[in-house]
Each structure stands twice: as C-alpha cells, then as structure tokens.
C-alpha cells in the first residue's frame, strides 16, 4: 500500500489524516491531486456520516498530474495533467457501459468516494487528499488552456449538467432556464450559453441577478415572486433544476413550454408530481447523474474550445471546514476549490 494525506470525516469534522492508497494495478495511474472542487454532495455526505461506519474522505471533481503508471497503461505518461470525476470504475460489459454510459452501469458504477472498489471491496476515499489511484480508463487528459483549479468542478458539476443539456438537444434557439444558481447552476448557464441557447436563471432572490447576466443569462426569474413565476409560464424548452434541497416541482413544471422538459439533477430523492402539470403541455420530467466517459471527454473538449470553466474561490485545503460552512449557507460564488499542496 501507498500512504498519502487527506481530510477524513471524524466527529462531524474533517481531520487531516494518513490514508492508504492501493499499489498500482496494471491499468492504474497515480495522480497527485492539486485541486479538488467542493460539491454540495460532499456536504450531504458529511451531514449523514456516522463515526464507526464506512470511512469518508469526500471529493469527486479534481485535477492534478500523473505521478506513476501501471505496466499496461497506454494513454498516460508521468507528468501528464489529468482530470477525474465522480466515477472511477464500472463493469464494462453491460449494455449501458458498452454504450459509453458508465454512469448507468447495471452493476452501479464505483464512485470516487463512498463507493466500493470492484476488485478488493474496499470503500473508495475521495479527492480531498494529495494522491488518488484510478484506472486510466476513468481519467481524462486535462486539455491545454484550461486552468486546473477552475477546471476541477467541470468533472462533477460540469458533466452533471452537460449530459442533460446534450440529451435534451439544447442548441441555438433553445430556451433554457437554470433553477438554482450554485456550482451546478452557474456551469449550466455557461454551457447552455456556449451551446447557443437563450438562457434564464431562476433564483430565490434578486441577489444574483447581476452575476447571472455576467454569466451570459438574458433573463432572471425570482422564484419567490408569484407574478414573475406566472410571467414565465410555458416559456422554456428545458428547465435544469439544480436546487440542492427538496422542493415543490409544480412552479418549475409550469415554466416548461409545451413538449419541453424539466430535468431534475439537484435534489435526488422522492418527489411528488401533479400529473396535470405534465399533462397540460405534454411536458416531460427527467433526471440524470454525472455522465459517461465519451460525454465527459466531449465536454472537456467543448470547454477548452469555448473557454468554459467554473468561477472559483481557491482555498488551501486546511480551510475545507470554512468552505463547507460557507457552501452550506449559500455563500459560494460559485465553487470552492481546495488547493491540496498544503498537504505536502
Ligand atoms: N445528479 C448528480 O449527479 C449530481 C451531481 C452533483 C451534485 N448534485 C446535487 O445537486 C445539488 C446542487 O449542488 P451544487 O454543488 O450546485 O450546490 P450549490 O452550489 O449549493 O447550489 C445549490 C443552489 O440551490 C439553490 N437553493 C434553493 N433553495 C436552497 C436551500 N434551501 N438551501 C440551499 N440551496 C438552495 C441555491 O440557488 P439560488 O441561491 O439561486 O436560489 C443554491 O445556489 C446538490 O443537491 C447536489 O447533491 C447532483
Ligand atoms: Zn459532485
Ligand atoms: Zn456496466
């Protein structure tokens, strides 16, 4: 085993700890993690983590540099800039895997943290650490020209909104609204704008209206203002809902245009839907999570071409507690990224 350092949950806090990484298997690469984004999912996991259960080291959107390669590795060399997202393995043989949708693997993909390693059954430990070991097939070359800190959030927040935008055919002329302007939401705005869509933001207050315009949105709907919600009725071909908490879908479905779709990618859990809200206008309700390997590679190429990265506040990893606390109270503009070099 190899030893590295990371931030492990203990007693409700993240504590700097020694972590074990596996010795490289034939198709593994070792990655020095330089930057890891702080996703709201990390907060959900930390809130529900119990001491004595499976170990928890969050972090599933990171960039770094390859520091070692197994004997069968062909796509990477030591020194290559690399990006890793929230899936690190899958069965490779089921229909979704064969279709390049490893995120829908029938055996459930191995998640970057809190997942189960497919070979030794251990719990995976995430990117809030200085080193990660991953199968080369699940790592991506970081395109030149993308800032490694600002690109890290593309690997979860970015791909999570890219897949539904693509699957729902967003392009020039599409009318897209993004509900919840946070980590996922601000990247959804940038990506939809770069795809040529007309974009609106739906947010709880008017506080982020200037930011939304700076991100490229042409319109802004305050979700707590019934008049604004009414004016937005039947207006959007696609509503991307990234809101991090359970909420009533009805107002968002009402904003979907005939034959359009509400795609719920933020809060994942049971929702109740009034079927009449779907019936009137033949509206669709969809969801998805993360993305397949080909879509992730496509997104990275697109981002390099269009200069799309996250708006980030980079903090030394020792300030991870502050980042999580501020994210929890909605004070992120728009993604915290940890600089892990302080773990050396
Ligand atoms: N499907 C997937 O694979 C996937 C992947 C990553 C994350 N997620 C989930 O997506 C959600 C968003 O993640 P994120 O990292 O973008 O979070 P975030 O940066 O905290 O953004 C969430 C946004 O939700 C809105 N919101 C509305 N009511 C809220 C409330 N009571 N508390 C907090 N936020 C509220 C806020 O937007 P306004 O201020 O504009 O109202 C906030 O900016 C999380 O639930 C996360 O677990 C899903
Ligand atoms: Zn995430
Ligand atoms: Zn599979």
UniProtKB/TrEMBL annotation:
E.C. numbers: 1.1.1.2
EC class: oxidoreductase
Domain of life (superkingdom): Bacteria
Catalytic activity: a primary alcohol + NADP(+) = an aldehyde + NADPH + H(+)
Gene Ontology molecular function, alphabetical: alcohol dehydrogenase (NADP+) activity; zinc ion binding
Co-factor requirement: Zn(2+)
InterPro entries: ADH-like_C (IPR013149), ADH-like_N (IPR013154), ADH_Zn_CS (IPR002328), CAD-like (IPR047109), ER (IPR020843), GroES-like_sf (IPR011032), NAD(P)-bd_dom_sf (IPR036291)
Domain Enoyl reductase (ER) per the UniProt entry, residue ranges: 11-338
Family: Belongs to the zinc-containing alcohol dehydrogenase family.
Protein name: alcohol dehydrogenase (NADP(+))
The species this protein was found in: Actinosynnema mirum (strain ATCC 29888 / DSM 43827 / JCM 3225 / NBRC 14064 / NCIMB 13271 / NRRL B-12336 / IMRU 3971 / 101)
